[in-house]
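Retro notes, item 3 of 5
We never archived the inputs for the beta-D-mannopyranose complex last cycle. Fixing that now. Sequence and ligand:
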Amino acid sequence: MTRPHFRELFHRHPDNPILTAIDWPYPANSVFNPGATLLQNGETLLLARVEDRRGISHLTAARSSDGVTNWRIDSQPTLMPDPEKYPEEIWGIEDPRITWVEELGRYAITYTSYSTSGPLVSLALTSDFAAFERAGSVMPPEDKDAALFPKRFNGFWGLLHRPSANYPSNKANIWLSFSDDLKHWGDHCVTLEARRGAWWDANKIGLSPPPIETPEGWLIIYHGVRSTPSGALYRLGLALLDLDSPCRALWRGDEWVFGPTQPYEQIGDVGGVVFPCGAVHDPAAGTLRIYYGAADSSIAVATANLADLLDWLKSAKEHRVS
Ligand code: BMA
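Structure as it came back at the time:
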């Protein structure tokens, strides 16, 4: 469905969904919510969440030279839950975000471990998406939607994440925490708050892909969860964080910019969901490709012009938030 009144910033690929469980080299219920990165050889790597028929998820890598077609998918799970050594992974590992960390010469993968006490944030490092060094759990439950910034701030690593609060706020906001060893985190601050009432991003928001560095600030693509009588609606919005003090949000869009409208986004295990965990920035073309889970069932891709996103953020009647 086209929406002529709104300027569409993200353009879906006509071949969407680009990956489904049918494409998988081994039996899977669904493949969705992939982390994404551009490898040094120019290939796009997706680290997909793969859910089996027990309901437990693991992660599997898929590689493609154009980021859309001819995916080479690992023939076996790439990263399995390891509950013997990491009991918090007992009910699976989900929704990975990938950050290339130049200083470490490795990729940092933050993912959700589904523990018996609820979801929490875990971290692993890899250089090749074949061998992984797990740091284990880095945030207690309930916490998810985490991604590492690629560089330190005043000597400290920064991690965006989304703890959920119960009484009295019942709110899930995006927080930022700092660490000098990637394991022990503190100096927590709220970066972006869920709004209230009828807003599309009321009560529950979360980071989607890792923050994207631009000359004007860190671009944040976040999801807002609107609770409706027929289920939750997951949509995306934009914000910009200060380059040096990323706890400070400079700009935040009022309107959502991407939401579930297509049949593959509305029908599936969980309809009404677009959920990107990865974005690939092509500086030469000035574009951003977001890879998203559609209806918790398949993987799709949409492209935006990065300058358009920043222009929209600055001009679309937003308010300065600080
Ligand atoms: C969120 C996460 C995502 C999922 C979404 C919709 O809480 O668990 O993995 O895609 O719900 O079901």
